[in-house]
Amino acid sequence: MLYIILFLILTVSLIMFLYYTLSGRLKRREAEGADLLNQLNILKEGKQVLNLENMGLNKIFVETLALYELTKDICKGLDEEKIFTIFRDNLSKHINFRACQYIKDSVELIKYKDYMILPLNTEENQAAGYLAVDGISDADREKFGILAQQLLIGLRRAHLYQKVQEMAITDSLTQVYCRRYFLERFSEELKRSRKNKLHLCFLMIDLDNFKQFNDRYGHLVGDAILRQVSKTICDMVRQIDFIGRYGGEELAIVLAETDKEQASFAAERIRQAIEASIIKAYDEELRVTVSIGVSTFPDNTDHMRDLIEMADQALYLAKETGKNKVCFCPA
């Protein structure tokens, strides 16, 4: 009987031991499972965050790529109107708006008083123009400002190109055409006159006693005289005519579609305007005169070199016979 009781006690003890052991393991497994589930939830949340961040980065990438494409398209052109047209067409792909205008003159801004106006300044902080947009939401204003900078890049590039071109063809002192480009234009105009059977006149202009002004007042005053005389001539000619600095104090003019009688009138107007001008050069107020030699196409010749030589001979005659006059090469 005693053995049976002991056996039952041992059996119950063993069962209790196994129960508590298995129960503890089960609880640990449940705890571990809960931890794994919690970690899985954390990973899922992290994945969602990463997905959102990835979507944001993709959006930024797409927008950046679009900006790059816009800049690339804008920089294909060197004409301001063409650049703006490309910008406006691309702008509609990024934001909603009712109207967008590129304004060069600030006087025109009064017409767009209800528009959002964005100045477009060059690197020298000068206004390259203004961008006026209507119907843009507050949410798109920042993006619009960023896109407008791409337009400004294109405009700056166009202005720089134009400036380089002007420097290549313009005499820095007088602001008229340099000799090389003037002769190119002269050749083209002569070909056009031949083709269309038009008259053309060539004027060679030389300042009288220019060396004396340089010797007496200095080269800075001489430069100021050349600048003012060039400006006076520019004010006297038409848009279809063109002027070049031929060399030193010599200036040359091509009068397109002009016969001998008309050239005589134009040359005399130029001579009188220069004679009547008071040139303010630093502390000096001076008066200068010019001598002018004229050759005509087709009366004298139909070759550019000969027209130049004949006008030069007529200029020499004007100098030799008293200066401050207009002389024509005889037909």
Task: Please give the structural blueprint.
Layout: H1 2-74, H2 80-91, E1 99-103, E2 116-121, E3 127-134, H3 141-169, H4 179-196, E4 200-207, H5 210-217, H6 219-236, E5 242-247, E6 250-256, H7 260-276, E7 279-281, E8 284-286, E9 290-297, H8 304-320, E10 326-328
Parallel strand pairs: 9-10
Antiparallel strand pairs: 1-3, 2-3, 4-6, 4-9, 5-6, 7-8
Written overview of the protein:
With 331 residues, the chain is an alpha+beta fold. It folds into two domains: 80-168, no CATH class; 179-328, Alpha-Beta Plaits, CATH 3.30.70.270. It is built from eight helices and ten strands. It has helices at residues 2-74, 80-91, 141-169, 179-196, 210-217, 219-236, 260-276, 304-320; strands spanning 99-103, 116-121, 127-134, 200-207, 242-247, 250-256, 279-281, 284-286, 290-297, 326-328. The strands form three sheets. It has a five-stranded mixed sheet with strand order 5-6-4-9-10, with helices on both faces. The chain has a three-stranded antiparallel sheet with strand order 1-3-2, covered by helices on one side. Strands 7-8 form a two-stranded antiparallel ribbon. Strand 7 (279-281) and strand 8 (284-286) form a beta hairpin. Helix 2 packs antiparallel against helix 3 (141-169). It starts with a helix and ends with a strand. The model has no long low-confidence stretch (mean pLDDT 83).
